[in-house]
Specification:
Elements (H helix, E strand, L loop, with lengths): L8 H11 L4 H17 L1 H6 L8 H18 L2 H4 L1 H8 L5 H11 L7 H11 L14
Helix pairs in contact: 1-6, 1-8, 2-4, 2-7, 4-7, 7-8
């Protein structure tokens, strides 16, 4: 087995899926929910974009990529650990999925063990944060 420092995002996602196989559907559904949120609020988000390390255009390209993968793969995303890994955590496209996983840790349905596993594997920093409630 590779050490944590030797793992890439594909390795980390596969390990997470193997450690928490019963959570893959919840994680996939949450990533989809995040994509829907960004699409439903696109106009406001683009207007108020403040992320410094990534452009809104790139972020929405990552969301579009996720949505194509979600539509193409359907239930295989959470029924097959390798599909989960390969379709959602490969290359730069993993940025949106990882951001959603870190966001998932703040949800009541996320157990402490899963939260800490996500933090260990992917960190606890969000690349993009959006809070429409606090914006006037």
């Amino acid at each position: 087995m590779k050490t944590l420092n030797q793992m890439d995002n594909l390795d980390r996602a596969y390990l997470l899926a193997n450690l928490f196989p019963d959570e893959i559907k919840n994680l996939t559904d949450f990533i989809k929910k995040e994509a829907d949120f960004y699409q439903d609020n696109k106009e406001q988000i683009l207007k108020d974009w403040t992320a410094k390390h990534i452009t809104a255009e790139l972020w929405y390209n990552l969301i579009d990529f996720f949505e194509r993968r979600y539509k193409k793969n359907g239930t295989r995303l959470y029924k097959n650990k390798k599909t989960f890994r390969d379709q959602l955590f490969d290359g730069y496209d993993a940025l949106f999925s990882i951001n959603a996983l870190v966001n998932f840790t703040a949800q009541p349905q996320c157990s402490k063990k899963l939260k800490y596993a996500i933090y260990l594997l992917f960190g606890d920093n969000l690349l993009v944060t959006i809070d429409l409630k606090s914006q006037g």
